[in-house]
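note to self: dont lose this again. the chain is below, predicted strucutre after it. 601 aa total, dont forget to put it in the shared folder this time
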Amino acid sequence: MKTSYNGKVARINLTTREVKVEALDMDLATKFVGGRGLGTAMLYNEGIATVEPLSEANKLIYATGPLTGTASPTAGRYMVVTKSPLTGMIASSNSGGIWGAKLKYAGWDALIVEGKASSPVYINIEDEKIEILPADQYAGMLSETVDEELKKVHEKCSVLNIGPAGEHQSLLAAIMNDKDRAAGRSGVGAVMGSKNLKAITVTASRNVIEPHDADKLREAMTDCLAKIKANGVTSGGLPTYGTAVLVNIINNTGSFPTRNWQESYFDKADDTSGETLVEKHLVKNSYCHRCPIGCGRVVNLNGKVVGGPEYEPLWAYGGNCGVNDLNAIDEANFWCNEYGLDAISTPCTIAAAMELYQRGYIKEEECDGVPLVWGSAEAIVTWTKWMGEGKNALAKLMADGSYRLCEHYGHPEYSMSVKKQEMPAYDARGIQGIGITYATSNRGGCHVRGYLISPEILGLPEQLDRTTVEGKAKWAMIFQDLTAVIDSLGLCLFSSFALGAPEYAALLNAGTGTNYTAEELLVLGERIYNIERLFNKAAGMKPEDDRLPKRLIEEPITDGPSKGMTSQIQVTLPQYYEARGWVEAFPTPETLTRLGLEEKY
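---
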């Protein structure tokens, strides 16, 4: 049957330099879709849950979705799936650009990279040909330079690589592709560095994926594009101001974490807003492959045109560090990309260090002349670079994240993290539902595993009261399950502002020849979320890992529109487990049977 899957997986062993071509397990693909779901199921089946994340035994899976590279809107996404060295649990990091589509066009649904090279290498893929080549000359290079240098060798390639942070195995290291697109979060770049793998280049001779039914895909695509065009977020807010449109919106609700979550309103937030970015620094929008939205920012940084910050680093370097210097934030974000650092966890760790410094736990003599003081533009730029370089003892400690930093100083409570991963830019005291998704996210503190900001703040698909807990547990589950599907299809989460399960089912059915209803699609997402949870259980997760920092539960917001609020996670978490069919944070046998997971898992 004609399908948008390629039907092939490459297994690349860096120790033996052997490359094997394997048939895609179509039963597994049907059960877990592709991308995030398929990558997790494959990793689980490889027995990786119990290995040390930075050991040779860990594996990296680069997985496309069945719609990656098709004519579907936003069809440029891929996932990196591995065991996280930051959390010790599942890592599945998403990125856009064109690299994922190029991998699909080259004929591959996924790559399984295993073993460890004895010296730096990169993988070069040219359609069917896969080779492992020496990368000694690229070792230590910044990300953009690696991209440019490899394109001199492989002229029409797309480049995925790690910067120096990944080579140093910083637990905050990201994987970069197409210069300024990042598979961030969870330390996936450190796993790549542990394998001595500097880059993967892909060149493809074709530029289209033929679906099962081209007419039905065209019809579904036309419907989706019309809805994206009619939606105020996808046709107005995101193209005009990027994700940074949220700076003033979230700040005005009093849910904009400030100075490491000690406060929730930043009186200088507008200096770092999407509107100000457009007015002062924007050069143009940037678009990922097949994207009709164009939320990416390209900015002028002291005369150099570079990829600009999204909402999360604008917040994390801005209000969370007490900084209102937009140029400094642009520069710090640039260095995150160049060194290959996660642009959420890195500034959040700097914010935690600033609180430790504020309270006297980090001493001035540890700071090499750049004190970690609130509002310091110099500090956010310099310490980002030092973390990327591993310059001194404190920078090396910070490069492993806020939890380990704060634990080192005897105060882990100042790490605003879940499962040792830093939480993003929405205060769960002022926005109750997002706290459930933070606490229960399988990859640690994360907003893009169930973006309840959409209904709680933006009113999509309907307006919910952000201050109440009623019904939020069920909403969290639905959003988590739908997001799991979107990540597995190879599409962008931002399309979900305008689209829902019926539209995604239509695209998948046209691409692959399946016949899913919207309800059945959500069951696929539920299955994916549960296999991630099973991976985490096997990796040693405990029920108490589903928690929020005690600051959000015990310390009411001190000022602003959400003054006096705390997270009610103690109320909503049991409701969430009941909705999921879980007991003590894990699926019951009955739930596993219902989802078809009982035999293998």
